[in-house]
Amino acid sequence: MIAENVYLDSSALRHLYVHGSRSAAMSAWRFRHPDALPLTRFSRAEIFNAILGAAFRGDLTEEFAQRSLAAFETDFDSGGLRLVDLPWRAALDRTAELSRTHTAKLGTRALDVLHVASALELGARTLVTYDTRRAALAQAVGLKTLAP
């Protein structure tokens, strides 16, 4: 699987930085796919929020949250992750189009649709996600899905 063809959403990526039941599987998948993974600024913001939200809820200590944030930033510095520019106008237009076509059948939330639209706009072929609604929408529009 070529990293350029993969869109890794926050429901999957967060398991590399906030430990949970899926962290071991996600880490193993990441080990097998060491290429730089493209990440939008929106997904980057979601990971910051996921880590700090976990600290707020008491799932992480403040110290561990800071170490997780540092590890996330290190992954950019080392080339494991790289920011990609998303054509926002096109992505939001596609989000509206996909919502109109699929939300009544699949019950997708706006952010689910935005992630799938982002994957399409970036030319991804595979959506890596643990979110069932995102996966259903991705499959409906011809993307492969993967939940490591």
Q: What is the compact description of this entry?
A:
This protein is mostly helical. It contains seven helices and five strands.
Can you characterise this structure?
It is a single chain. With 148 residues, this protein is mainly alpha-helical. It folds into 2 domains: 77 residues, no CATH class; 59 residues, no CATH class. The chain contains 7 helices and 5 strands. Strands 1-4-5 form a 3-stranded parallel sheet. A two-stranded parallel ribbon has the order 2-3. Strand 4, helix 7 and strand 5 form a beta-alpha-beta unit. The longest helix has 19 residues. The chain is globular, with a radius of gyration of 15 Å.
Layout of helices and strands:
Elements: E1 6-8, H1 10-13, H2 23-32, E2 37-39, H3 41-57, H4 62-77, E3 81-83, H5 88-106, H6 110-121, E4 126-128, H7 132-140, E5 144-146
Parallel strand pairs: 1-4, 2-3, 4-5
Helix pairs in contact: 3-4, 5-6, 6-7
Helix and strand sequence: EHHEHHEHHEHE
- Calculate the terminal CA-CA distance, rounded to whole Å: 13 Å
Q: State Rg.
A: 15 Å
Mean pLDDT: 93
- Biggest β-sheet, characterized? 3 strands, parallel
The helix fraction, in percent, is: 55-70%
The parts where pLDDT drops under 50 for at least 5 residues are: none
Which structural class do the helices and strands define?
mainly alpha
Strand order of the largest sheet: 1-4-5
Number of strands: 5
Count the DSSP helices: 7
How would the global form be characterised?
globular
The total tally of domains equals 2
